[in-house]
Amino acid sequence: MTGKIASSNMDAALPPSRAATDNTLRAVLVDTLALDEAQVADFEADTGLFGHLPELDSMAVATLLTEIEDRFDFTIDDDEIDGEMLETYGALLAFIEMKLVTD
Which whole number is the average pLDDT over 41-52? Predict the structure, then answer.
């Protein structure tokens, strides 16, 4: 025996790593808002989104949320959408991480 722990079928149920979630969210922002990849790569947790990015207007919010649902395979209920979740990059990332754990 090598001392390694065998993987179980439960591994498939684990949410993606923070880095994977972060990378996917950045790709969603580039794809849905037509933002420059370098600009999005520089986003920090406190980078403002809604009200700070001209590309993220009220019409783009629906497209963004739909794409997040598709890429992360969960549903965002209407009562979960508020200004705080879209205020900063970190808030949106935290919301997605919470959904991945609770859904």
Answer: 97
